[in-house]
Amino acid sequence: MADTSGRPAGGRSSGTRHPLVAVAMVMPLAILLTVVFGGWEAVVTQASSVAGMLGR
């Protein structure tokens, strides 16, 4: 029988994934790179800058 589901042959849909799924996939690598290269100070500085801008 012919496949009439409208999906690609691989079984996965070609739509976009949810933004929270993308964040969950990226965060472990981002945390690892931050720890390895010692970027905590930069993260804290940027976060405080963003928080200050949002507070205005």
Provide keyphrases for this structure.
56 residues, mainly alpha, 61% helix, elongated
Give a written overview of the molecule.
Helix content is 61%, strand content 0%. It has two helices and no strands. The longest helix has 19 residues, at 19-37.
Question: What is the structure about, briefly put?
Answer:
By secondary structure, the protein is an all-alpha fold. It is built from 2 helices and no strands.
SSE layout:
Blueprint: H1 19-37, H2 40-54
Uncertain ranges:
none
How far apart the termini lie comes to: 62 Å
Sheet having the most strands: none
Choose one word for the global shape: elongated
What's the mean pLDDT score? Answer: 79
Tally of DSSP helical segments: 2
SS class: mainly alpha
**β-strand number:** 0
Q: How large, in whole angstroms, is the Cα Rg?
A: 20 Å
**Helical residue percent?**
55-70%
Q: Strand-and-helix sequence, N→C?
A: HH
